[in-house]
Amino acid sequence: MREQADLLPGTLDVLILKAVSLGALHGYGVLLRIEQITRGALLVEQGALYPALYRLEHQGLLTSEWGTSDNNRRAKFYTLTTAGAKRLRDETDSWKRLASAMSSALKARPEQA
Amino acid sequence: MLTRIIAFCRAAWRRARFEADMDDEMRFHMECRAAVLARGGVPPEEAERRARIEFGNAAVYRDRCRDARRLTVLDDLRIDLRFALRNIRKDAFLSTAIVATLGVGIGATTAMFSAVNAALLQPLPFPDPAQLVMVYSGTDGPTPVFGPDYVEWRENCRVCVDVAALTQWPSTIAGGTAPERGLIGRVTPSFFTTLGVSPMIGRGFLPDEMGRGPLGNTDKPVEKPAVILGASFWRRQFGGDPAVLGRSVRIDGEVATASVSCPTGSTSLIARKPGCRPRF
């Protein structure tokens, strides 16, 4: 069993936006893509994906369209909108800032205090 | 009404469509997961079961999806309303008391506002209402103005364009569909011209419809007394028939009418008095 970390609040939305930005995906595809790009390090509750997808679509960050999946079944595909791309850029910047701030804070040694 | 029904049906149809699509989407997810597990050697039934477990509580997620689309607002409203109705029925006495209190409170406030609105807030329904003043005589509350005083005022008032006199009392007016109790006013011929209104149909009073004497109120009755009916009285008693002109109206038993005309549709002062009769 790999070690998996629980998602921080608010991270699922960013992960979904990132996953969809790499190409149109159906819900299950989003899950696989997130597993792939996080190398399986983050634990995503499968069902929790859908409320997040619906919310992002409602906010106009994603659009959806019914199409046919690889196994020839009707499936709903999500794509990123312009607003979604902008949101992803903003979120990425703020994550980078937070991550670097956190890691430098946690690296601090006694003589720096 | 029809558009509302169509809109409602469309919303219901869209809602059904939304539910079906959402179910389908989630089922697709579980099928994909089960297929992956089955490829790994898990028996199909076991794979389906595991896919369902991994997905989590679908009912909860479906609800959160509806929430994300603000679809639960109406559902919640319906539940709340049903709860409220049940509680109202449970304690009927208290509910009745509350409704009665609210009803009386709202009614009293509305009545008071209506009166204040009509009496104080709404301007009088005459041209230039700010130029109209009511003059009384007497130091201890209003007392009747004597005829000679009126004539004196009318002739010598330099700040007024015109002066008209009015006195009124409750009477029984017959001649329409049924006798009616209402206020009768005796006015000087200048009354309607002073107010700046003219009858809707027919004509105003003529100077010779005023009797002799300063105010015309001599003992000698006027040869051809005329009356002007209030617009609401005219509509109520004569069905708004223009043929009312020239008909007789009995006021307190006296056949007192020759020419009948109706003043403007003004809602206030005039219309509130069912009939105005000069007895000059």
Instruction: Determine the N-to-C terminus distance of chain A.
Output: 39 Å
Counting DSSP E segments of at least 2 residues, the number of strands of chain A comes to 5
The residue ranges of chain A in which pLDDT falls below 50 over 5 or more consecutive positions are: none
Shape of chain B: rod-shaped
What does this entry look like structurally?
The complex is a heterodimer of chains A (113) and B (280). Chain A has helices at residues 11-21, 27-37, 49-58, 82-107; strands spanning 5-6, 25-26, 42-43, 62-68, 74-80. Chain A contains 4 helices and 5 strands, in the order E-H-E-H-E-H-E-E-H. With 280 residues, chain B is of the alpha/beta class. Chain B is built from 9 helices and 7 strands, in the order H-H-H-H-H-H-E-E-H-E-H-E-E-E-H-E. In chain B, strand 4 and strand 5 (254-255) form a beta hairpin. In chain B, helix 1 (2-39) crosses helix 2 (44-55). The two termini of chain B are 58 Å apart. At the A-B interface, helix 2, helix 3 and strand 5 of A face helix 1 and helix 3 of B.
Brief characterization of the structure:
The complex is a heterodimer of chains A (113) and B (280). Chain A is an alpha+beta fold and 113 residues long.
Furnish the topology, listing elements before pairings:
The complex is a heterodimer of chains A (113) and B (280).
Chain A: E1 5-6, H1 11-21, E2 25-26, H2 27-37, E3 42-43, H3 49-58, E4 62-68, E5 74-80, H4 82-107
Parallel strand pairs in A: 1-3
Antiparallel strand pairs in A: 2-5, 4-5
Chain B: H1 2-39, H2 44-55, H3 58-68, H4 72-90, H5 92-121, H6 147-156, E1 166-174, E2 180-187, H7 191-195, E3 227-229, H8 231-238, E4 250-251, E5 254-255, E6 260-261, H9 269-272, E7 275-276
Parallel strand pairs in B: 2-7, 3-6
Antiparallel strand pairs in B: 1-2, 1-4, 3-7, 4-5
